[in-house]
Amino acid sequence: MHLTTGYPTFLYCFEADSTRIVCPITERPCGGHIEAVTPLGVSGFCGTGDFAGFPSWWEEFARFRGYVTTYIALNPLFDHPSFTDPTLTQQHNSLFFLDLTVKEEELFRGFSESRRRGLRRWEESAVSIVTDRDALTLFILNNYRGFFRQKGFPLAYNFDESTVAFLLALNQIYIIGAAIEGGLQSVLACCYTQDVADALFSIALPEGRHHGVGLLWHAARHFQQLGVPMFNLGGGISVDDSVAESKRRFGARRLPLRSLRQVIRPEVYDQLCAHAGVCATDRTGYFPPYQRPLAAR
User: Fold this and answer.
1) Same domain for 28 and 59?
2) What does the CA dihedral 57, 58, 59, 63 come to, rounded to 10 degrees?
3) Please, are residues 112 and 244 in contact by the beta-carbon 8 Å criterion?
4) Are 288 and 69 in contact (CB under 8 A)?
5) Residues 20 and 108 in one domain
6) Cα separation, 10 vs 39, whole angstroms
7) String of b and e for 17-45 (b: at least 16 CB within 10 Å)?
């Protein structure tokens, strides 16, 4: 993400006794000051165990760094109640997870009837599965900007090509594509560890958008064979939109996506909100509100 934003980006690490808690952090400029945010994606605090005093330690670090605010997206699989003050968190979306510890037949039965029916038709079609990493990477690099723009993705998805190329070259990336008569039409890129797989993004040509379900099914079976227990399908672009509904029909478990929203320097925060012409007391929507895109104000 640093290759796109240019902002200082690093891994925050807290250690006390036998507990270790980490979180990727980006320091973003704001009116001559800085604020802390998590890089785009699902990250947040992740640790080896609970630590009751951690929120105080985190706030002390934030004050030491001079942050005006902190915005930390919290992964629902790895977050722990002791990591944050619940009065400072808000749910702003949902994520959908497939349990890969069940047998393949049971996983398939969890799909909605229409999803199972559509997947059967897709598998009986003339589609070819492509795993050539170079060809798949080239397809994504050639098409991701136009696809995100057409789908109305936020400006944060306007990645520099170097960011996309770096991600796709990582060892723990799985890329799969669908082709008809030798021509690639859709590609799915996922990342994974021994604990969870994440669907990074799916890029499709207009004529290839019906391949998405089949590619996710192939990826789920691949991670199941590797022994990965959970597959994060992501969420909607907004709450309960058509993208979220599509993921729900996989029979996926829905978990709340929450974020920590702190004001560390209230006097500076109020000034920035006043200058932007936004309400300083409402912290339930876009946060911090002075960073909301002008078109959305």
Assistant:
1) yes
2) 100
3) no
4) yes
5) no
6) 10
7) eeeebbbbbbbbebeebbbbbbbbbbbbb
If asked whether residues 117 and 211 sit together in one domain, one would say yes
The CATH number covering residue 213 comes to 3.40.630.30
Q: Are residues 13 and 79 in the same domain?
A: yes
Q: Is 102 helix (H, G, I), strand (E, B) or coil?
A: coil
Q: Domain containing 219: what range? A: 102-228
Domain count, the chain: 2
> For 71, which DSSP code?
E
User: Which of 91, 90, 96, 93 is closest to 198 using CA atoms?
Assistant: 96
Q: Can you give the pLDDT of all 297 residues of the chain as single tens digits?
A: 999 999 999 999 999 989 999 999 999 999 999 999 999 876 899 999 889 899 999 999 999 999 999 999 999 999 898 999 999 999 888 899 999 999 999 999 999 898 899 999 999 998 999 999 999 999 999 999 999 998 888 788 899 999 999 999 999 999 999 999 879 999 999 999 999 999 998 999 999 989 999 999 999 999 999 999 999 998 776 677 777 778 888 888 899 889 999 999 999 999 999 999 999 998 888 899 999 876 455
Residue 34 lies in a domain: yes
How far the first Cα of the chain sits from its last, in Å, is: 26
Whole-number Å distance between alpha carbons of 149 and 273: 29
Residue 198 belongs to a domain? yes
My answer on whether 117 and 212 are in the same domain is yes
What does the buried/exposed string (b/e) look like for 267-280 if buried means 16 or more CB atoms within 10 Å of the residue's CB?
A: ebbebbbeebebeb
pTM: 0.89
What token pair was written down for 48? 């080896």
Do both 140 and 175 map to the same domain? yes
Residue 48 lies in a domain: yes
